[in-house]
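Input record, target 12 of the design panel.
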């Protein structure tokens, strides 16, 4: 039986579309001066999208190779990294010679996803700051452009 290969570029496209819709919905609430109680949802979606996009980008610039199943390699603890753990590896990879142009295009603040946690999907309202969620959503717009420019998908 042949296993299916993971396509992080395709996964990013799906997560990015959902994230973009959620960001637009929240922006509309803000525009209407209504209370926004779901920054946590947007933030969680941003993390999922960024994780898949960054994995696609790391494979594309060849700073990381897929494992035998085509998935992102596991860490020393046997886990596949989420964006909060992946971010440092990403920063190192794109600040080097191969990806410096990518880092400049993204203009990402340092440690943008270091506080992101999978548990935030269950977090009470007010756990995630709206400003941070918007920063991450803005990063995704730039990441989408970079992935398009690099012809990752």
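The sequence produced for target 12 reads:
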């Amino acid at each position: 039986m042949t296993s299916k290969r993971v396509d992080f570029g395709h996964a990013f496209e799906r997560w990015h579309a959902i994230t973009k819709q959620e960001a637009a919905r929240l922006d509309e609430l803000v525009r209407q001066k209504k209370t926004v109680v779901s920054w946590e949802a947007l933030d969680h979606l941003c993390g999922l999208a960024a994780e898949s996009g960054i994995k696609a980008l790391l494979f594309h610039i060849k700073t990381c190779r897929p494992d035998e199943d085509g998935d992102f390699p596991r860490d020393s603890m046997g886990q596949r990294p989420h964006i909060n753990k992946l971010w440092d590896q990403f920063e190192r990879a794109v600040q080097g010679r191969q990806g410096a142009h990518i880092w400049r295009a993204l203009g990402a603040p340092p440690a943008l996803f270091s506080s992101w946690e999978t548990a935030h999907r269950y977090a009470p309202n007010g756990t995630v700051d709206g400003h941070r969620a918007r920063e991450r959503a803005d990063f995704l717009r730039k990441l989408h452009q970079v992935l398009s420019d690099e012809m990752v998908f």
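The chain has one domain: 8-148.
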